[in-house]
Description:
Chain A is globular. In chain A, strands 1, 2, 9, 10, 11, 12 and 18 form a seven-stranded mixed beta sheet that branches. In chain A, strands 7-6-14-15-16-13-17 form a seven-stranded mixed beta sheet, with helices on both faces. Chain A has a two-stranded antiparallel ribbon with strand order 3-4. Chain A has three domains: 2-83 and 203-277 and 416-458, FAD/NAD(P)-binding domain, CATH 3.50.50.60; 91-195, no CATH class; 281-406. Chain A has helices spanning 12-23, 70-77, 82-85, 108-118, 123-135, 148-155, 159-171, 182-195, 204-217, 260-267, 354-359, 362-383, 399-406, 441-458; strands at residues 2-8, 28-31, 42-46, 49-53, 88-89, 93-97, 100-104, 198-199, 221-223, 228-234, 237-243, 248-256, 283-291, 304-308, 322-330, 344-352, 391-397, 430-432. Chain A contains 14 helices and 18 strands. By secondary structure, chain B is mostly helical.
Amino acid sequence: MHYDAIIIGASMSGLAAGIRLAYFDKRVLILERHYAYGGLNSYYRQDGHEFDVGLHAVTNFCDPNDRSAPLSKLLRQLRLTREDFDLRPQSYSQIKFPGIALNFSNDFALLEEQVARQFPKSADNFRKFVEDLREFNDTDLSKPYASARKTLQDRLDDPLLIEMLLCPIMYYGSAEPHDMDFTQFVTMFKSLFLEGFGRPPEGVRKIIKALVKKYRAVGGQIKMKSGVAKINIDADRMRGVTLDTGETLTADNIFSSAGYVETMALCGDKAKQPPPEETGAVSFVESIAVLDTKPKELGHDATIVFFNNAKTFTYAPPKELVDLTSGVVCSPNNYQDHDRLPNGIFRVTWLASPSAWSKLSESAYKDATAQCNEHVLKTLNSYIPSGTERLVCTDMFTPRTIERYTGHRNGAVYGSPTKRRDGCTPIKNLYICGTDQGFLGIVGAMLSGITVANLHVLSKA
Amino acid sequence: MGDLNVKKVILEIISIVAPDADLSDVKTDVRLRDQLEMDSMDFLDIVMELRKRYKIEVPKEDYQMLASLDSCVEYLAPKFAALSPA
Lengths: 461, 86
């Protein structure tokens, strides 16, 4: 069978690319190895409870009248409406370091006021810096790498303020330990602080289902449980794919959301393989406590808390299994209009060491996950003292779970530290989309699929 | 197809490409980009919709001809006329 485009992965970026191409009458096939949609942002049901993987917050929450905001653009491009995603705004969130906290919400004035109060000497510099960020063109695909940490040191003089700003931004998108690209920092700063957080009451499934429905409605085809064993190359041209079943398919273009390193590996020895340092190493564990009441009823009303309990903030894969000194606490009930959620949810995410997790035997793995569940209860206890009495169950995922379900090596949810913004690979007609393009967050994932479809197929015809 | 109809077709396409745009008072001689906050992605979509719906091709070097409603009509009327000889 021949297609105009084959898309590897029924991920948000893959589905978005698929919608664009199929809407404009291209013959498109999405191949997904797994039985669930979504890729790095997915969902599952366990013991009668609904869980999200990935999504804490849809960043880029914006006013419907802001037509130039990324979320508005992507809805237009996908011919979807705001109702299709059903996003409800956060209450407020917090960056919490020893002895100091900065609150922020979808109204940027709150963060500005908090910075002015906690860091009076830096208030002016911060205001000027933010004005420059607003004007910074972070969508320019050709901007060279610049260290965000260094740029921040040049612009803001207080090291603590710099660490507090980096903490949520790194946690929500940096594939690089200790630092990140300044352009990516700006994209994230805008999406987290200048825009904000939203979530559909149904969770990420609402968004994924809307994408799948649209993709099918415009004539796109999907094969689930259909893994790609090999991308077939002829000289420097892609010809098609061979599936795990041995079936071969040909295509004019391939868009792969499998990750850059993973995609090149599918091409085999004929393609130049990237060096090992291009494989992502930043991954996380997340433990989830389900409560029989809402966190708000027990006095915890923040939507997300980014915490660091150590003297210095370190964003890097730890030597041990999990680094408990910093992390993210997410309480989805604390978005507005989320009263219909049947249970209280308290999720804690920590940095994890993919290599340490991968070495564990099955029994040691079981012990390690049990320990993480102990940690989530301790954290729950420190935020909500009576929380553990209201516990229904716990669940968790590790770098191993992420690798098993998404194929991303090391369970590196933000992919390779080397980003390819235009999606190009050394092989003609083979493109990547998704996290390795460096467009961050859920809105970024969808925009990445849209941009590669536009750039490499639709604007060429 | 007459000029009025070409204008109607373009406005219809804009309402598909940018359903959140207010089309109640579009000035025909002002750049669409300026009055409707449309970006390059939206313009690509106008071109793509013309191809999808009417099989009309607009090459990249002619995108500028779609700047305002007036210039759209001027540029597209002959193309529409060529489609329907009646």
